[in-house]
Amino acid sequence: MSMEKRRWLRLALQVKGSVIPAVLPRSLFCGFFALIVKLLLDAHYPVSLPLLASLIPNIVLGLLLVFRTNTAYDRFWEGRKFWGSIVNTVRNLARQIWLAVEEKEAGDRPEKVKALYLLVAFAIATKLHLRQEPIDPEIKDFLSPGKYKKLQRMNNPPLKVAFWIGDYLQSQYQHNRLNIYQLTEMHKLLDNLVDAIGGCERISKTPMPLAYAIHLKQLLLLYCLSLPFQMVGQLGWGTAPVVVLISFTLFGIEEIGNEIENPFGHNQNDLPLDAICLTMHRNIDDLISLEPTVHSAEPFF
User: Fold this and answer.
1) Mind listing the pLDDT tens digit for each residue in 62-81?
2) CA distance 249 to 254
3) How remote is the C-alpha of 26 from its chain's centroid?
4) What transmembrane ranges does the database entry give (predicted)?
């Protein structure tokens, strides 16, 4: 058996990260209900009703489920694009600050390093803000004690960090370490970061319409509970496992939509925001380890 086939089988049987824990109780409940229907049939109650197959057409339920899942995945993918934009913009802004801001005095280099780490703080603050979590020590290493305390009192911490970055850029321009064109380009990148916050907030604060979610759940429950009446006359004791299998499939598709519609949390199926922030931290560390040629005595070639 090839490595790819073993991995496929391992993923197919994996419980962690799947919707099995959430879906299995509902599916077993439907199977238990099917057993009750079978016992009623054995007691000569007229519970075999194959006409119920036309109660909810399969195509209607299928289209509703597909729409639900596609809508949720669109939100997931849009969130990933916003975070991809944050990563690229942080890299570009950090690179421009590191290369363009002139170092005229001894304290200019440490201040520039602090400004670059503010970009990491921005990413972490955005992650915590989207998760509706308070500012925690994870961000403490990238801020001065005073800024850290101020940030804990903010309603929108990443916006405050963006303000500090903009304030640094404006200060460098006023001290003739940046020209107006460099300042303008850097502010455009900073605007892109703020735009990305707004896009992520739109996803996290715009849930699926409640009426649609309720109606879909009602249809799913009605469909799964009608299955035993459709099948018991033909399948007998096989009705329960078949109902469990079908309901597991349908409830699983719906639960996948629930899992991925808000991709900024801690679940296995959410975006790996911790890893993304760590990547940005490493990128900034790598950048700081490089010496800008324009500030060094090394020949360019």
Assistant:
1) 778 888 889 899 999 999 99
2) 9
3) 26
4) 20-41, 47-67
